[in-house]
Write a structure and sequence with these properties.
By secondary structure, the protein is an alpha+beta fold. About 25% of the residues lie in helices and about 25% in strands. The strands form 4 sheets. An 8-stranded mixed beta sheet has the order 6-7-5-15-16-17-14-18, sandwiched between helices. Strand 1, helix 1 and strand 2 form a beta-alpha-beta unit. Helix 1 packs parallel to helix 5, helix 1 crosses helix 8 and helix 2 packs across helix 8. It is globular.
């Protein structure tokens, strides 16, 4: 029997692992194997809200989202299939003078990165989104380029693309260990045998902490949190458009058009971190109440779909991209960590491209990723980087 070998093994077949395998093949990796304990996209990748926002709170976040948006726009021509991206525009709402001042600081940074974002007063925000209660806000930042994808279609798109690229996708095949010799990876162990390789990308989503612990070093500080999403019944006022999406930073409430109604979601940062897919109906009622305050029309609408997913997050709300660490907290040769920090749809393809670049060539031109590695966290999970202020509110810790 021939030895099972690969130029690159990717652990995880979500958005990061799936697109990373496509990019790696395009970059010249001749044999790419993707392992997943379940099936492709069965976690948060197929259960997300699909919002793609380029109005990040750091230069890194802006770069990642702009690259991703351009990628989504060019998918049909490139692969003959796309992730369903549609341009909607996005309002990040301000409710007082402090919100407005912080927004204008972000705008200056975003515009320096080439983003066409701007400030709109409350009246213009209500013109853009007529169902919004103008009296509740003082204004908003707005970017017309932002939009949304269809998450299940995204899973289909990268599955089609990786198959066309000759990637070997092995579902229901968990990675149970890494073979390491002389400070470098030499193989990935599974219940079905070992795949010999000198390059590995760990893209384990909410399981990334446990997965990176296979290196013998510290597991990266990636937590999991329940995230609830619902879709209202249709209404004629919501079927026109496109209408811009909107985001309230303090609560993490966001919404967008979907099926002639409104898709909305919000996390509960007071929950304990961990896997959770059950719907918390009490919390959902809180979400609906706040949505009804900001968009009174939604009070009269029923819910047609509700679901929950576990999404990953990091202490500084930024992705983790760089070499895994060994027991001595030194870089482990050949092993790259790739976690999107709760922004799998928003940053996923860019994070995946950087991961493939780092695994194969050690550098990437998508954005400067040299400071995004696991080594930025201390033994308690504290980061040396400033937290991205434009993110969902997550629990203060990533769990035990």
């Amino acid at each position: 029997m021939p030895q099972d070998t690969a130029d690159l093994v990717i652990v995880g077949a979500g958005t990061i692992g799936g697109w990373a395998s496509v990019f790696a093949a395009e970059l010249g990796a001749r044999r790419v194997v993707v392992l997943d304990a379940g099936t492709a996209g069965a976690g948060a990748s197929s259960r997300a809200a699909g919002i793609v926002r380029s109005q990040g709170g750091t230069a890194t976040a802006v770069d990642l989202a702009r690259w991703t948006t351009a990628f989504y726009r060019g998918q049909q021509e490139r692969y003959g299939i796309d992730s369903g991206f549609r341009t909607l525009g996005y309002l990040i709402l301000a409710f007082d003078e402090a919100d407005g001042a912080a927004a204008r600081e972000r705008l200056a940074m975003q515009q320096e990165r080439g983003l066409d974002s701007r400030w709109v007063d409350a009246a213009e925000a209500a013109e853009l989104l007529p169902v919004l209660d103008e009296a509740r806000i003082t204004g908003a930042t707005y970017c017309a380029e932002d939009g949304a994808i269809d998450p299940p279609r995204n899973v289909l798109a990268y599955t089609v693309a990786l198959k066309a690229a000759g990637v070997d996708l092995r579902e229901r095949t968990a990675a149970t260990g890494l073979r390491i010799e002389g400070g470098r990876v030499t193989g990935v162990v599974t219940a079905r045998g070992t795949v010999a390789t000198e390059r590995v990308i760990l893209a384990g989503g909410v399981g990334q902490g446990a997965l990176t612990a296979l290196t013998g070093g510290p597991g990266v500080p990636v937590g999991g949190a329940r995230h609830q999403i619902a879709v209202t019944s249709p209404h004629t006022a919501l079927a026109t458009g496109p209408l811009p999406m909107a985001f309230e930073l303090a609560t993490g409430l966001y919404w967008r058009q979907e099926e002639g109604g409104i898709l909305f979601g919000m996390s509960n940062p007071l929950e304990e971190p961990g896997e959770a897919r059950e719907v918390d109906w009490d919390n959902l009622r809180t979400i609906r109440t706040r949505l009804g305050e900001l968009m009174p029309l939604t009070r009269e609408l029923d819910l047609r779909r509700v679901w929950a997913a576990t999404i990953d997050y990091t202490p500084d709300h930024l992705p983790i991209l760089g070499p895994a660490l060994d027991a001595a907290r030194e870089p482990l040769g050949g092993v790259t960590v790739a976690s999107p920090g709760g922004h799998g749809m928003m940053w996923g393809p860019a994070v995946a491209r950087i991961a493939a670049d780092l695994a194969l060539h050690g550098t990437s031109d998508v954005t400067d990723a040299t400071f995004l590695g696991p080594d930025r966290f201390d033994e308690h999970g504290a980061s040396t980087l400033a937290t991205d202020p434009i993110a969902l509110p997550f629990p203060e810790t990533v769990g035990s």
